[in-house]
Amino acid sequence: MKSKSKNHFFIIKMIRFGTVGFSGLLLDFSVTYVLKDTFFVNPYLSSAIGFIVAATSNYFLNRIWTFESANKNIIPQFISFFSIAVLGLVLNSFCIMLFTHLDIQFYYSKALAVFVVFFWNFAANFFLTFKERKKLAHLKLAKPNVHKSI
């Protein structure tokens, strides 16, 4: 029974992470569009700003909703989350290059890359950025070691 509830916990976190990620995608595209097409900002700068805004939003949504983090060290946690997002961006580009080199059409390559990067981002944030939930759960299960001396 315990492993079933752990699996349920993990799957719920993954679904929430994906939902937050989708909201980030919409925010990224919206910010990029407004900057590029309304304010005529350089497309690459617009895209970079869209990524930063979306990653920041994703951090706070995942912190509050997905992982329910109580960690008071927000700045180091944000740096961890953002670093993982940047590594995910690099991994995304690498996957697209690799898949297109293997003669997979660009948009199929991009879709495969999004799939790979989703699991990278989720696992890295679950086990690194928001790991305190695991520590707290472990502490609740631990029994105090009481020795009586005579």
Protein architecture, described:
The chain crosses the membrane at residues 12-35, 41-61, 73-99, 111-130. This protein is an all-alpha fold and 150 residues long. It has one domain. The chain is built from five helices and no strands.
How do you describe this structure in short?
By secondary structure, the chain is mainly α.
Question: What is the element layout, followed by pairings?
Answer:
Layout: H1 2-38, H2 43-66, H3 74-101, H4 106-129, H5 132-141
Question: H/E series, N to C?
Answer: HHHHH
State the helical fraction: over 70%
Total domain count? 1
Major sheet size, sense and barrel closure = none
Task: Give the overall average pLDDT.
Answer: 89
The shape is globular
Please provide the count of β strands. Answer: 0
Structural class: mainly alpha
Beta-strand percent range: under 5%
Radius of gyration: 19 Å
Low-confidence parts, pLDDT < 50 over ≥5 residues? none
Distance between the termini: 41 Å
Q: Helical stretch count?
A: 5
GO cellular component, one term: plasma membrane
Family: Belongs to the GtrA family.
Keywords: Membrane, Transmembrane, Transmembrane helix
Membrane topology: Multi-pass membrane protein
